[in-house]
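Internal ticket #5521
Category: modeling
Description: The requester needs a full-assembly model to guide mutagenesis choices. All entity lines are attached below as received. Residue total reported by intake: 680.
Assigned to: D.W.
Attached entities:
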Amino acid sequence: MMGGAQRFKDAALTALVALALAFPLLGFRTTDIGDGFITRFSWVAIATAATFGGRLLLGLVPQRFRLHQYAARYTALPQGKAVTLAAAALILFAILLPISPFGSRRTIDLATLALIYVILGWGLNVVVGLAGLLDLGYVAFYAVGAYSFALAAEWYGLSFWEMLPIAGMISAMAGILLGLPVLRLRGDYLAIVTLGFGEIVRIVINNWSAVTNGPNGIGDIPRPTVFGMPIAAGAPEGVTTFNHFFDIAYDPLQRLIWLYYVCLAAALVINWFSLRIRRLPVGRAWEALREDEIACRALGLNPHTIKLTAFATGAMIGGFAGAIFAAKQGFISPESFNFQESATVVSIVVLGGMGSQLGIALAAVILATLPEFGRELAQYRMLFFGAAMVAIMIWRPRGLFTVRAPSVRLDQP
Amino acid sequence: MSQTALLTVENLSMRFGGVVAVNDVSFTAYEREITAIIGPNGAGKTTVFNCLTGFYRPSAGNLVLTHDGRSFRLERLQGHRIARDAGVARTFQNVRLFAGMTVLENLVVAQHAELTRASYYNFGGLLGLKSYREAERAAIARAREWLDLIGLTARADEVAGNLPYGAQRRLEIVRAMCTGPRLLCVDEPAAGLNPHESADLARFLVSIRDRFGIGVLLIEHDMSVVMGISDHVVVLNYGEKIADGAPGDVRHDPTVIAAYLGEDEEA
């Protein structure tokens, strides 16, 4: 328990921080009259005083009434079998979403975006969560996947389904390309180089106008067909549309729902893949590399191969997500692939709990939809977003799910 | 019993800039023998290990490993290939387990090469081929045998980092053995153990040597362990070899006594 003087000092320090923040943020407001700005120092005074008073009052609350220490205890997340149940419930909800009462145009669109982030989170999880290689330029592979699909569609008229595996492979190659020069790097140094790689890819796309059409982006990207049949009101000669084949009226919502299911199916396949690969030699080698690279080498594991496979696998999944994103938007430009995206995906992995499939899926849904739910808050939306993230980290400092399931057990059949 | 040379170290030198850590050291380690490398702190023992296992590239000298009619030039092999192809496994002075993984996983990772082959470089395993499932089962069975031997079977699914120190040391040796080595290099295995645990460990090393017929290279400060189980002792001081022979002879060698206790002024 803090003494009175100490509490006063603590409140004063907090008020000082508030003052430093409020002075530039609240103290000046730009206008189009006079000098171009007006001063509002009374606001600064109010904010500082409120912070001081609030902190002082908070200090008076006895320790045992502090909420956050109970939060983690009484809001235990499922473990063991319950995780499987929770995951099954989530998948069932995801399958039924379009036909449920929530299935509006806006929610389906948002859910598709959330699923793309789930896929990205799972992809980056291979690199960051399993292999322990901090990659801050993951968006590069997302961009490579999106642009390889968009360009192949434009130049060669390849469809989404033809390009999906190829886009993944091209991204995997980009992953190896990034992996080769950074084989000897670790930790912070690796993070810096990957950050640079992400920016290089974006800048190349932005400036190589002859190929990528620069900042103007690429449009008219074909949508995924239903087993070769496009979803459309009318079609050119010789092409049967989905609507004609099943004899139902065209509705733009159908295209959205189909894309949602494509995305959901991709996510489920990638989940299956991730769970399975953890139990294969290469998956265990990734985790061993995260734990101790030197011990890996002493046991005859080649750290270079392990790193390259991790980068390639993560990049491939990012490439799939990119191709799906391009098909969803129908238009892509370098703006969609800035550092903000990399940061979001890293936040998803950290917030979800590194290595946890369910945790990452939840974190991806939260991070993708939170800004949308906050629309009513208008300009305070990002403030709300930041506060929510801080709250989650206080609630669960090591991510939503931190219990690691062993890849192999002694007593298994 | 005729001795078969397993490892021949010829004129090994390792320099870091102007510092000579190991200077022109030669010795031989034999199959089915425990060869101890002893010497005061900073004598270059671990440097010799690091040269042998590919963590350092020697400045000069040859390191030849011979078994089954094949010979390997260790100073030319990549680090991981020394363990995988030549069959040299090692443990570390400060235990290096995969602390966040379970005890069993530590032992399964050590069987990586075999499992990778059985899973057709993971692609077959991804498709759920029978050969991989069988290989995984066999790997688990092998791990279980080792765990039975060191009394850790009951804790197989626990996180390795939570084990007591002595158990971690034993697990690290067993993990090295799971790679199927011909030469096992153990770096101060008895450090931090009580006399009772040290004696257990000494017996364990002897049983490994006898059961698998491998050579063991041992760095150790605990003289009761060294003198009790070594077939052969190499003494280093300031990076140079000062004695080489049976434990009984080395123990009475005046240069060795001088190195450990300090030179007599008048001598």
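Resolution: model delivered.
Comment from assignee: The radius of gyration of chain A is 25 Å.
Ticket closed.
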